[in-house]
Amino acid sequence: MMKMLLRGAAFAALLAGAGDLKAQTLKMWGPEQITEPLIAELWKGIKADFEAANPGVKVEFIPPTGTISNGAVQAALQSDAGPDVVLTNSGIGRVTVVKNAKLVAPLTAQYENRGWKAKIYPWLYTELNGQFGGEIYEVPDGLDALGVWYHKDMFAQKGWAIPKTWQDFVTLMKKIDAAGVQPLAIGPRTTGSAGHLFGNLLQSASGTGAVGKAVGGKLSWTDPTMVTGAVRLRELVDTGLIKKEMAGLDLEGASRLWFTKRAAMFVAGPWFTANARKAGYDLANAGYAPMPSDLAGESKPTGGVGWSWLLPANSKQPELALKWIDFMLSDAVMKKRAQHAASTMIYPRELPGIEPPTPVLKDIFAAAAQGVGYNPSVYLPGSVLDTYFQVIQGLISAQITGEQGMAEIQAKMAAAQ
Fold first, then answer.
1. What is the CATH number of domain 146-303+368-416?
2. Most buried pick, 273, 310, 316, 324, via CB within 10 A?
């Protein structure tokens, strides 16, 4: 116990008094796509700007080998040669894993001391502040806004349009199927892709309020207001509008269906622009719209915190890591990123006067400005996530009903509370 107290005291002392260090190296984990030339160009520029603002400092990028979901971040955080600051895909379900393992330091005080509270949307701060009894362990770098992507030229040629209501959306899917095109591609072997579609269906069927209560354990997943989305997914499979064979696809395989126009629609967020560039897809042809809903005001993207900065508990440069986060939250860096062709996300606060360089991002930003619902994949407790994704796989492969699936999720939620 004494050793743990000493270690904690030493870490606190580093945070409080390491500001006068000179020659330093900051090891940064991320971002995942830094091998893409356009993204590498952006991040090398950010690195150079930080080094210029902090003479004697060098930034070393550690290319990620994975995420919290597959254990790669945890392994890196436990390494003596690990990163000083981490950028990874996040959300309460993932952050809980590293927080419970005591691999990351709380950052709550820094939100006041360093002015971070004013650097993110007020609603976002409220959300973060309520997740761990008032302690905050992440600093949002980007938000997600998941909705329906479609091919502009295909829709124009066929006279199709994304409608306003769910019933009309089903009618559209039938027209697409009759034209010999897969209406909707899905890659459920990649858990994120499974969750993107299912979260959209839940939002469309149940609305933000109900889904928010369900992920927070305040509404049963077997409640009639929640079951509809799962039933709809099974109905799409039973009618062939989503092929059962999709159960065998991962994100890459499903994306390929869409990029080659063998599928008309795909549910994804702004990060999909990076996938499209890599595949050689013309992003000027990409359209985006929220999933239609029969509920007034509930046709909106789903989302949450998509990417966050974490401070490893064993960071050798904690004060420098905090300075890096300060830098990344600055107006200059945020605007530089938002206006760069490599921009792939929505930033954690409003950036007035910014014109996204990729046309589809402008559509996504406009949709998100009207409000974003919950993507359960990043809000559910970690102990529930495996079951959540298994249920989606079971629905797409027609092995379970919507009611059975939601009962399985609720059983896990009850056990987690």
1. 3.40.190.10
2. 310
